[in-house]
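no rush on this but wanted to send it before i forget. theres a chain ive been looking at and ive put its sequence and its fold in token form underneath. i want to understand how the tokens follow from the sequence so walk me through it. thanks a lot i owe you, the record is right below:
>
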Amino acid sequence: MTRRDYENDPDAPPPNSLVPAASVVVVDESGRVLLQRRVDNGMWALPGGKMELGESLAGCGVRETKEETGIDIEIVGIVGTYTDPGHVFAYDDGEVRQEFSICLLGRPVGGSIAVSDESTEVAWFAPEEIDGLPMVGNIRRRVDDWRSGAAPVVR
């Protein structure tokens, strides 16, 4: 399924869905960040996805990271809350989802890098390497918010 992101675009379709989700900035002992290249839009992104019934937010972040990257993590903090109604993603099945994501901070505890049906590439990047990668603006803001070292943000 393909996905198109719209950020403050007057031509964006109106949202018809709001789904709680988690994303995770996973940082290894060398300070590198784990990213995946998404199948649905070809952009580099943090691992993450929608919460399932009966699941905690932290559990969602752990599960999605493992599914999408092969890496086992533990959650050690929070980067911020991202709920911009001007950021919607349109899927080819007709769903247009308004952003609602809590970005967590994680550290690897096991596993090994593996692509999934949601990713074409998975890799560790030094923070300065991320600046040149194709990435949706709101995902880049999450990485930049983590890099700033500020208290958790609410956007």
Remarks:
- The chain has three helices and twelve strands.
- The helical segments are 57-69, 127-130, 137-148.
- The mean pLDDT is 94.
